[in-house]
Amino acid sequence: MGGALVGMLFLLLVVTVFALSNLGTVTINFLQVAIYTGPLALIVVGAGVLGALLTYLASLIHLTAPLGTAAGEDQR
Length: 76
Known about the structure:
Largest sheet: 2 strands, antiparallel
Structural class: alpha+beta
Strand order of the largest sheet: 1-2
Shape: flat
Number of strands: 2
Order of helices and strands: HEEH
Strand content: 15-25%
Distance between the termini: 38 Å
């Protein structure tokens, strides 16, 4: 448990240093339409937060199984 926390803190530090090292302005296009223009640091941090949120939501899928059954188990 402690090793995972240290690993996550190290990863957070690496992403923060990377984001702050890239302060240039970039444009994000979707289907040839510019949808956002801003600093690369904000885009990197936003992508990380969005990825963490999607991972968390995907981990909640096992909670949709009916009570008394394990996820992926056939009901009879």
